[in-house]
Amino acid sequence: MVLEISVERDLTIEDPKTDAYTVHVDTQRILTVVTHSESIVTKWLKDALKSSIKSAVLVGITAETEDRWCWKEKDRHKEYPYDFLCLNIGAQSLVYETWETYFRARHSLVSFLENPRVFVIGRDMANLSRKLKVHHGIEIRNAVDVNELAIRGLRRDDLDLGRYDLDQLARAVFGKQMDLARPEDDFYWKPRDDEFYRLTRCDELKLFWAIDPYLCFLIGLELIEAIDGAASQKKMQKKKKKKN
Protein backbone atom coordinates (compact mmCIF):
# COMPACT_ATOMS: atom_id res chain seq x y z
CA MET A 1 0.00 0.00 0.00
CA VAL A 2 1.43 3.38 -1.05
CA LEU A 3 0.75 6.26 1.34
CA GLU A 4 -0.14 9.44 -0.50
CA ILE A 5 1.43 12.72 0.58
CA SER A 6 -0.43 15.99 0.09
CA VAL A 7 0.11 19.57 1.18
CA GLU A 8 -2.28 22.37 2.15
CA ARG A 9 -1.09 25.92 2.67
CA ASP A 10 -2.51 28.07 5.47
CA LEU A 11 -3.50 31.23 3.61
CA THR A 12 -4.32 33.08 6.84
CA ILE A 13 -0.62 33.57 7.65
CA GLU A 14 0.43 37.10 6.71
CA ASP A 15 3.94 37.12 8.18
CA PRO A 16 6.42 37.73 5.30
CA LYS A 17 9.02 35.64 7.14
CA THR A 18 6.77 32.62 7.64
CA ASP A 19 4.59 30.15 5.77
CA ALA A 20 2.47 27.47 7.41
CA TYR A 21 1.24 24.23 5.88
CA THR A 22 -0.46 20.99 6.78
CA VAL A 23 1.33 17.99 5.32
CA HIS A 24 -0.89 14.91 5.06
CA VAL A 25 0.68 11.45 5.16
CA ASP A 26 -2.34 9.21 4.73
CA THR A 27 -4.42 10.00 7.87
CA GLN A 28 -1.54 11.65 9.76
CA ARG A 29 -1.35 15.44 9.74
CA ILE A 30 1.96 17.26 10.22
CA LEU A 31 1.64 20.96 10.97
CA THR A 32 4.66 22.49 9.25
CA VAL A 33 6.15 25.95 9.68
CA VAL A 34 8.67 27.27 7.14
CA THR A 35 10.32 30.36 8.59
CA HIS A 36 13.33 32.52 9.29
CA SER A 37 11.53 34.45 12.03
CA GLU A 38 13.53 34.54 15.25
CA SER A 39 10.45 34.75 17.47
CA ILE A 40 8.64 31.86 15.76
CA VAL A 41 11.70 29.59 15.80
CA THR A 42 12.28 30.35 19.49
CA LYS A 43 8.63 29.65 20.34
CA TRP A 44 8.63 26.39 18.35
CA LEU A 45 11.72 25.17 20.20
CA LYS A 46 10.25 26.10 23.59
CA ASP A 47 7.03 24.26 22.74
CA ALA A 48 9.08 21.25 21.64
CA LEU A 49 10.63 21.04 25.09
CA LYS A 50 7.14 20.98 26.58
CA SER A 51 5.94 18.30 24.16
CA SER A 52 7.11 15.36 26.24
CA ILE A 53 5.81 14.57 29.70
CA LYS A 54 8.89 12.41 30.16
CA SER A 55 12.32 13.82 30.86
CA ALA A 56 13.66 13.10 27.36
CA VAL A 57 12.53 14.89 24.19
CA LEU A 58 13.03 13.06 20.89
CA VAL A 59 13.49 15.25 17.80
CA GLY A 60 13.84 14.08 14.21
CA ILE A 61 16.29 16.07 12.09
CA THR A 62 17.41 16.51 8.49
CA ALA A 63 19.39 19.32 6.86
CA GLU A 64 19.44 20.54 3.27
CA THR A 65 21.82 22.56 1.12
CA GLU A 66 20.74 24.31 -2.05
CA ASP A 67 22.58 23.70 -5.30
CA ARG A 68 24.93 26.48 -6.34
CA TRP A 69 26.11 27.37 -9.82
CA CYS A 70 29.89 27.62 -9.64
CA TRP A 71 32.11 29.13 -12.31
CA LYS A 72 35.29 27.57 -10.95
CA GLU A 73 35.80 23.82 -10.92
CA LYS A 74 37.24 23.83 -7.39
CA ASP A 75 34.10 25.54 -6.04
CA ARG A 76 31.86 22.80 -7.40
CA HIS A 77 33.29 20.36 -4.86
CA LYS A 78 33.31 22.84 -2.00
CA GLU A 79 31.30 22.00 1.11
CA TYR A 80 28.68 24.66 1.76
CA PRO A 81 26.72 25.40 4.96
CA TYR A 82 23.19 24.12 5.34
CA ASP A 83 20.41 26.34 4.01
CA PHE A 84 17.52 24.57 5.71
CA LEU A 85 17.31 22.74 9.02
CA CYS A 86 14.24 20.52 9.39
CA LEU A 87 13.04 19.37 12.82
CA ASN A 88 10.09 17.20 13.83
CA ILE A 89 8.41 16.19 17.09
CA GLY A 90 5.62 14.04 15.67
CA ALA A 91 2.71 16.15 14.47
CA GLN A 92 4.83 19.32 14.33
CA SER A 93 7.61 20.14 11.87
CA LEU A 94 9.84 23.19 11.58
CA VAL A 95 11.69 24.04 8.38
CA TYR A 96 14.16 26.71 9.46
CA GLU A 97 15.84 28.77 6.77
CA THR A 98 19.42 29.01 7.97
CA TRP A 99 20.87 31.30 5.32
CA GLU A 100 23.46 33.47 7.00
CA THR A 101 21.43 36.68 6.69
CA TYR A 102 18.43 35.01 8.33
CA PHE A 103 20.27 33.05 11.01
CA ARG A 104 19.34 35.28 13.93
CA ALA A 105 17.75 32.61 16.12
CA ARG A 106 20.97 30.62 16.28
CA HIS A 107 21.33 31.14 20.04
CA SER A 108 17.90 29.53 20.62
CA LEU A 109 18.89 26.59 18.45
CA VAL A 110 22.24 26.22 20.22
CA SER A 111 20.52 26.16 23.60
CA PHE A 112 17.92 23.65 22.38
CA LEU A 113 20.34 21.18 20.77
CA GLU A 114 22.72 21.35 23.73
CA ASN A 115 19.91 20.63 26.21
CA PRO A 116 20.62 17.28 27.94
CA ARG A 117 16.91 16.38 27.66
CA VAL A 118 16.95 16.62 23.86
CA PHE A 119 17.88 13.57 21.78
CA VAL A 120 18.25 14.36 18.08
CA ILE A 121 17.78 11.49 15.64
CA GLY A 122 18.60 11.42 11.94
CA ARG A 123 20.67 9.75 9.22
CA ASP A 124 24.44 10.13 8.91
CA MET A 125 24.46 11.99 12.20
CA ALA A 126 28.25 12.09 12.52
CA ASN A 127 28.54 14.12 9.31
CA LEU A 128 25.45 16.25 10.01
CA SER A 129 26.73 17.10 13.49
CA ARG A 130 30.17 17.92 12.12
CA LYS A 131 28.80 20.29 9.47
CA LEU A 132 26.53 22.06 11.96
CA LYS A 133 29.49 22.62 14.27
CA VAL A 134 31.94 23.72 11.56
CA HIS A 135 29.65 25.93 9.48
CA HIS A 136 27.05 27.12 11.98
CA GLY A 137 28.72 26.90 15.37
CA ILE A 138 26.01 24.53 16.61
CA GLU A 139 26.74 21.40 18.61
CA ILE A 140 24.31 18.54 19.18
CA ARG A 141 24.73 17.13 22.66
CA ASN A 142 22.79 13.88 22.16
CA ALA A 143 22.97 12.74 18.54
CA VAL A 144 21.33 9.42 17.61
CA ASP A 145 21.93 7.78 14.23
CA VAL A 146 18.70 6.17 13.06
CA ASN A 147 20.50 3.47 11.06
CA GLU A 148 22.62 2.46 14.04
CA LEU A 149 19.52 2.44 16.23
CA ALA A 150 17.77 0.16 13.72
CA ILE A 151 20.69 -2.29 13.80
CA ARG A 152 20.47 -2.41 17.58
CA GLY A 153 16.70 -2.48 17.82
CA LEU A 154 15.73 -4.84 14.99
CA ARG A 155 18.64 -7.28 15.33
CA ARG A 156 18.27 -8.36 11.72
CA ASP A 157 21.64 -9.61 10.54
CA ASP A 158 20.05 -10.57 7.23
CA LEU A 159 19.38 -6.89 6.41
CA ASP A 160 21.99 -4.26 5.55
CA LEU A 161 20.33 -1.72 7.84
CA GLY A 162 23.39 0.50 8.01
CA ARG A 163 22.90 1.45 4.35
CA TYR A 164 19.12 1.71 4.29
CA ASP A 165 17.53 5.03 3.38
CA LEU A 166 14.61 6.33 5.44
CA ASP A 167 11.92 4.75 3.29
CA GLN A 168 13.63 1.36 3.54
CA LEU A 169 14.05 1.74 7.30
CA ALA A 170 10.38 2.67 7.67
CA ARG A 171 9.32 -0.46 5.80
CA ALA A 172 11.71 -2.59 7.87
CA VAL A 173 10.31 -1.21 11.13
CA PHE A 174 6.61 -0.79 10.30
CA GLY A 175 6.09 -3.16 7.38
CA LYS A 176 4.97 -2.63 3.80
CA GLN A 177 2.14 -0.32 4.87
CA MET A 178 4.75 2.43 5.34
CA ASP A 179 5.45 2.99 1.64
CA LEU A 180 5.52 6.68 0.70
CA ALA A 181 4.78 8.18 -2.72
CA ARG A 182 7.49 10.80 -3.21
CA PRO A 183 7.78 13.41 -5.98
CA GLU A 184 10.50 13.32 -8.62
CA ASP A 185 13.36 15.47 -7.30
CA ASP A 186 14.99 16.19 -10.66
CA PHE A 187 12.23 18.48 -11.87
CA TYR A 188 11.99 20.76 -8.87
CA TRP A 189 15.04 23.00 -9.10
CA LYS A 190 14.65 26.64 -10.11
CA PRO A 191 16.83 29.78 -9.95
CA ARG A 192 16.41 31.96 -6.89
CA ASP A 193 15.03 35.40 -7.65
CA ASP A 194 17.68 37.29 -5.70
CA GLU A 195 20.75 35.20 -6.53
CA PHE A 196 21.05 33.89 -10.08
CA TYR A 197 23.91 31.52 -9.24
CA ARG A 198 21.90 29.58 -6.64
CA LEU A 199 19.24 27.01 -7.38
CA THR A 200 16.48 26.39 -4.88
CA ARG A 201 13.78 23.80 -4.52
CA CYS A 202 10.27 24.84 -5.40
CA ASP A 203 8.11 25.64 -2.40
CA GLU A 204 6.04 22.48 -2.70
CA LEU A 205 9.05 20.18 -2.62
CA LYS A 206 10.48 21.96 0.42
CA LEU A 207 7.43 20.78 2.28
CA PHE A 208 8.33 17.19 1.63
CA TRP A 209 11.37 17.88 3.77
CA ALA A 210 8.95 17.74 6.69
CA ILE A 211 8.49 14.04 5.94
CA ASP A 212 12.08 12.90 6.50
CA PRO A 213 12.52 14.24 10.06
CA TYR A 214 9.01 12.89 10.75
CA LEU A 215 10.17 9.42 9.67
CA CYS A 216 13.31 9.78 11.80
CA PHE A 217 11.14 10.66 14.80
CA LEU A 218 8.64 7.88 14.14
CA ILE A 219 11.26 5.18 13.58
CA GLY A 220 13.29 6.34 16.57
CA LEU A 221 10.28 6.31 18.88
CA GLU A 222 9.31 2.79 17.81
CA LEU A 223 12.83 1.38 18.14
CA ILE A 224 13.55 3.03 21.49
CA GLU A 225 10.32 1.62 22.91
CA ALA A 226 11.23 -1.82 21.54
CA ILE A 227 14.73 -1.65 23.03
CA ASP A 228 13.40 -0.43 26.38
CA GLY A 229 10.74 -3.15 26.34
CA ALA A 230 13.32 -5.86 25.68
CA ALA A 231 15.51 -4.52 28.49
CA SER A 232 12.54 -4.54 30.89
CA GLN A 233 11.72 -8.14 29.97
CA LYS A 234 15.29 -9.22 30.72
CA LYS A 235 15.12 -7.57 34.13
CA MET A 236 11.84 -9.33 34.89
CA GLN A 237 13.29 -12.68 33.84
CA LYS A 238 16.32 -12.17 36.08
CA LYS A 239 14.07 -11.35 39.04
CA LYS A 240 12.01 -14.49 38.45
CA LYS A 241 15.15 -16.64 38.32
CA LYS A 242 16.36 -15.18 41.62
CA LYS A 243 13.01 -15.92 43.27
CA ASN A 244 13.06 -19.49 42.01
UniProtKB/TrEMBL annotation:
Coiled coil: none annotated. Gene3D superfamilies: Ribonuclease H-like superfamily/Ribonuclease H. One of its GO terms (molecular function) is nucleic acid binding. One of its GO terms (cellular component) is cytoplasm. InterPro entries: 3-5_Exonuclease_domain, RNaseH-like_sf, RNaseH_sf. Keywords: Hydrolase, Nuclease. It comes from the Eukaryota. The keyword Protease does not apply. This is 3'-5' exonuclease domain-containing protein.
